[in-house]
User: What shape does this take?
Amino acid sequence: MNSHDISRTRRPIRTLVLGAAIALAGGLALQLTPSVAKEVHVIPPPALDEPAAGGRETATFAGGCFWGVQGVFQHVKGVVSATSGYAGGAKGTARYETVSGGDTGHAESVQVVFDPKTVSYGRLLQIYFSVAHDPTQLNRQGPDTGTQYRSAIFPASDEQAKVAKAYIDQLDRAKVFDAAIVTKIEPGKTFYVAEGYHQDFLTNNPDYPYIVINDLPKVAALKRLFAPDYSEKPVLVGTSGSN
Assistant: This one.
């Protein structure tokens, strides 16, 4: 099921479509935001992290609808870019309409380019597991179900894979969550940039009901729990580099 579908128009949501739903969404948000906030976990930082080497680095995360995951990482200091896309499947099926079927092997993902001197890979993992999504939900996230919404990390190096695995083991041993972490580490997968209308969706559509209910609470949690890492101004993709 693809509950955040935007009518497959390949264009941003029209204002008229939003207008009829905003009032309802506002009321729902008042009821649902507290319950969403309760699912946010304060978790310890990773005991193992990458060294703060020079130069930019790339990390790719999947955790449900990429609108919210992108929105969270765009507000993290040290993040140079956060781009929505697909990872886990073949190039020929890296299209929204196809991926939404759930049988391409792809997951809706976000590729993050960051400066490790400002924010470490381990810190990004901590944010990912804490506020960006719920790592205990198998092949789903909130209202969305299917393997395309799975929790997965696509490491760009053996070192990233090592740090991610160690952190998952650390969190499971500490029983930080009520259930086991189901996040998979999937190395060697190519990232494909998503269609342009998916980029910066949270920033461009802050009143869209799905965003109000599911994703704005994540950004609020980032600001609250990771205040030193929070940037009020998001790093946006814009229109360049998108399909």
User: Anything to note?
Assistant: The CA atoms of residues 147 and 222 lie 26 Å apart. The chain has seven helices and eight strands. The longest helix spans residues 15-38.
